[in-house]
Amino acid sequence: MIFIILGLLAAIGPFSIDMYLPGFDAIAASLHTTVAHIQLSLTSFFIGIASGQIIYGPLLDRFGRKVPLIVGLGIYIAASVGCALTNTADNLILYRFIQALGSCGGMVASRAMVRDFFGPTESAKIFSLLMLIIGISPILAPTVGSFVMAHWDWHGIFIVLAVMATAILLTVIFILPESHGSDPRISLMPKPIVQSYWQVFRNRQFFSYAFAGGLASSGLYAYLAGSPYIMMNLYGLNEKQYGIVFALIASALITASQLNRYLLNTRSSGYVAKIALIVQSSIGVVLAVLSLSGIINLYVMVALIFLFLGSQGFVFPNTSALALAPFSRLAGSASALMGSIQMGCGALSSALVSYLHNQTAVPMTAVMAGCAVLSLFILLAGSPRPADSRPGQNRR
């Protein structure tokens, strides 16, 4: 049950991203604006997650995991209701930012609690299991969003999110145990907080794997930002068909993350991550070149994106586990900083797709390819030590 709760907490952010994607056109029409303007609500969500996680890190280390988590879920529920009741696009963008701040608690706490309970190699396997739950959200979320749109309207999407978060909040309060007690030694003054984050940031292993994983993940967020327009406007899919394609592509992420658990029985996390990034970069370049040439069709694009995100299923669990491996006392801060880096990269990539929007697939595919190639470069240039084979080393 604890594992399921951690998975649901980790999935709050992804589910919040994916569920309203099929409603972009309806939201834009209802709020008398453009789809490009509504896309900024996705960007503001990424910015909120990226910045909010920095706040939760010290709080989770100082007060334990549950109290900041409960407060964050309360903020998320209130902001979701605000999104449902808004009547302007600018207010939606603002409420999405606040909603993201609330969701940060679940994302940071779930990663920190995995680190609390498990060692580096075991953590990679647990992150793979969490990816099973996280990966289901891209399949379920657009489908649920389309169902709500068909039987209600886009406002109902955010009401459903509020109800779901309320249910998760109740399980956190009454079922989820505390994994890390409060630590009065952790100061909440600005200078010690900055010093703690700097201690984490300058760790070579953390830096290499956090940025490599963050940039690889940002290719996914570029896809999330660009795919509604490409699939529904360029290729003529309706909301239901888009949900099916979205689910198919998401299944690659789920399948790969589960295969990763078995690969780790014979290969190190660092090795698997490196090979996966090589494959992802190659696929990304092919996808971008074909899009630029204008000869790519729907089936080829879906197949290449399927393989691209399948590679991500091997990257995320391993880079996450290796980035957090050197830390114990500062696991909350390390989890927050890693998440902030990941979502910061995601915010930039999604904003870049929106900024470069030219009614073709090139902006999305070019950003996806660029993210993968840069991620591979950082991983190879950083050459982090294989600390996953020395789980007791360099604890902080």
From TrEMBL:
Q: Which UniProt keywords apply?
A: Cell membrane, Membrane, Transmembrane, Transmembrane helix, Transport
State whether keyword Transport applies: yes
Q: Where in the cell is it found?
A: Cell membrane
> Is Chloroplast among this UniProt entry's keywords?
no
A Pfam family name for this chain?
A: MFS_1
GO cellular component annotations of the record:
plasma membrane
Gene Ontology BP annotations: xenobiotic detoxification by transmembrane export across the plasma membrane
Q: Principal place where this protein is found?
A: membrane
**Which residues are listed as membrane-spanning?**
40-60, 67-87, 93-114, 126-148, 154-176, 206-224, 244-264, 362-381
- MF annotations from Gene Ontology: sodium:proton antiporter activity; xenobiotic transmembrane transporter activity
Write down the membrane topology.
Multi-pass membrane protein
All residue ranges annotated as the Major facilitator superfamily (MFS) profile domain in the record: 2-387
Q: What CDD domains does this protein map onto?
A: MFS_MdfA_MDR_like (cd17320)
Q: Which SUPFAM superfamilies match?
A: MFS general substrate transporter
Q: Which family does it belong to?
A: Belongs to the major facilitator superfamily. Bcr/CmlA family.
NCBIfam families recorded: efflux_Bcr_CflA
Q: Which PANTHER family match?
A: MAJOR FACILITATOR SUPERFAMILY, POLYAMINE TRANSPORTER 2-RELATED
Protein name, per record? MFS transporter, DHA1 family, bicyclomycin/chloramphenicol resistance protein
The record lists the organism as Parapedobacter composti
